[in-house]
Amino acid sequence: MNNIIKMFSMNKDFRIVIADTYQIAEKELNDFTGNDCIRKFLEQIITNCTLLSAMNDFNQKISFSLRLSKEISIFCMVTNSKFSIEYTNKLNEFKETVSDLFNDKSLLSITTGDWNTGLHTGTVEAHIDNIDVLFAYFTVQSEQLPSHFIMAGDNATRGVLMQPLPFADEKAITKGDAELLYLSKQLEQTEWQKVIGIYSPLANVISENRIE
Asked: Looking at the record's lineage, which domain of life comes first (predicted)?
């Protein structure tokens, strides 16, 4: 079953990606033995990495590196629509809060491309313990289009990425952003097969794909 939906707004001002990463998280975090707080943090990372990867070319390799405090690191990669994550084993024993993982030396790096097509890496300081905000901050600071990452309420394995197009109408973007935030609560619990119906008043489907 596809778990990625790409849409284009009716007013042609922004693109949307909707992702369900439950099966990815179940597979990749199968050996994780840490607390629920850290697991949810990892699920949020998986979802946001998947969203950004899906917004780009599906055939393009993309990797994400988080260097955190206490010598903890998290590395994700999407290649040929296959997702993988590696993390320092210390996370299995970590008893503190997510905020304690971040300090003034924390960094987020995202690399796209490969040795054949050319590599491009962007790096930002990661002083923000909210992954949605951190990824949005990255798109603002890098050469990518500024984007908004929205989690589906308390469901860390579902999310939406909104990417305004250049020269988009600011009022339309603000309105669309508010509507997507409102709809995120429905996305939290709606059956995946019915998700398109939630967003159909806002946007048309471009494609459906799968990252696993």
From this structure: Bacteria
Report the candidate in 156, 138, 198 with the shortest Cα–Cα distance to residue 5: 198
As a whole number of angstroms, the distance between CA 143 and CA 122 comes to 8
Q: What is the pLDDT of residues 12-39, one digit of tens each?
A: 999 999 999 999 999 999 999 999 999 9
Number of domains in the chain: 1
User: Residue 186's domain spans which residues?
Assistant: 4-209
Would you put residue 71 in left (φ > 0), alpha (ψ -120 to 50) or beta?
left
- Cα(132)–Cα(112) distance, integer angstroms: 19
Write out pLDDT tens, residues 196-208.
Answer: 999 999 999 999 9
CATH number of the domain that residue 106 is part of: 3.55.30.10
* Residues 209 and 175: beta-carbon distance below 8 Å: no
Q: Are 188 and 154 in contact (CB under 8 A)?
A: yes
Which residues share a beta bridge with 164?
Answer: 14
Contact 147, 163 (CB under 8 A): yes
